[in-house]
Amino acid sequence: MDRLRERLHEIDATPAPDLWEDIVGRQPSPPSRRGSRYLALAVGLMGAFVVAASLWALRTMLESDATRPTPGTTQLVRANGLLALARGRPAPEGEAPRTSLVTVDPARGDLRTLTSMDSRTTPTWSPDGDKLAYISNGDLVVLSVGESDPAVVAPCDPSGCEGQGSPAWSPDGSSLALWADREGREGLWLVAADGSGPMTLLAPNLSFGTPSWAPDGRTIAISGTPSANPDDHAIFLVDSGTGAILKTIRPDDLEPWFGVSWSPDGRSLAFDAVGTGGDLSRAGIYIVDSSGDGLRLATACHAFELCMDSKPAWSPDGEQIAFTRTGQERGSDGMLGDIYFLLLDTGEVRPVTSGEGLDCCASWQAVDMGKA
Amino acid sequence: MSSPSTGRVEHAYREQGGKLWRALVLYSGDRDVASEAVAEAFAQALDGETRIVSVERWVWRTAFLLARRRLSDRRTTDNRIPEQPYRDSEVSLELKMALLRLSPSQRAAVVLFYFADLPTTEVARRMGTSRAAVGVHLHRARKRMRALLEEEDGG
Questions:
Q1: I need a surface site. Which of A88, A132, A163, A179 has the fewest CB within 10 A?
Q2: What ipTM, to 2 d.p.?
Q3: What top-level class would CATH report for the domain A85-364?
């Protein structure tokens, strides 16, 4: 593709206009435009203050609650499990930013850094909560609880593998589904979770979203575009046995993006999307019935131009959705983002992580309450 | 004349403005869209300069977002791409048409990687997406452009 680079650089011979006077002439901003931005910012800050005050009041209330678990117990944690996520933090000058696989106890705020992983991919808990599957250096690996070294389940050898995306466990824990472009074939692939068998292409020519298994294990949802038509953005429901596309959900005026997550009862799908044609003003987390009806906006952030909500993950109890809210860049790693919870009964949005860098792509650990 | 508060932004414009404008012409196929996006992005940078860590990165990302929004608005209002998307002197006709037939994300990835000569990590930062996603966009864009350019060559 050096030829492509060369051909694109033909435009270097075209003189660019000098726009500096126009740029400076736009200062100060027209009130109708920037005024509305500052108004939105002010409203956003007021909202943030109200949320912070509410959280402080709630925390104070909880701390005075006699039913609050005593330190050292994991009762609340086990109700919804730990979150696993990818944490990117600024690196020293001259070094590449590093992304770590971390777990977070959302109730207590405890954070544990486990190992390194690929940025912006989703680490996924096994249904029994004892293993994490994720992408590291392009390879699909599984890390078991109590171990520090992951096992490679599906390597991505550059000679035959163009890329692999975030995995999703089958509800019985036996298989992992993921988007991959391997052996010259792109689509939704399956592999045994213990790496005991070869990868098989389940649904060819599907795009690169993060798949999600329906609770009954019969259907896999993946959002994106068919290889043959990159303008056709949709959510595809794929038969997990045959690879047949059972249903294509094309939400009105939206382009589903990367993330999709089934509700625990299998009735609904949460997904991230932008407006048709890449309209970022409509970016957000949406919910749609698995039938394709009942589309509604769950959450979105519009306070800042570059703010975007994505990567939804439904909690095992069905009451919350964890998602990634990315904002304006700060620091040397370029992006700032944190994990938030959306409380579905009230619509309240709560921050879970914070700090300079990008926390992304959470998944929930489903906890078997019968376990020790 | 520069005031102290405009110096950093003006320096970034003098260093990067022309290259950004050409990148946006490749991305949008429209000089007017490119000019408006460049001017508005730098104007916004002047407006919020003290809050921006890297003016260059911020302006590139904002300008591409603005251009994409402008193209989206135009698609909504008149549902047309420009009749003469590029001028004759800019790039060859087959390359113009191949670029316009990519998805917006693929086109942005191609322009930032092959024209702006940015590494995929930086392309990801400027597109507000992941390196893995950029890899996928580039991979699919290459496949698509290869097919489109071979079609044009009769191959």
A1: A163
A2: 0.82
A3: mainly beta
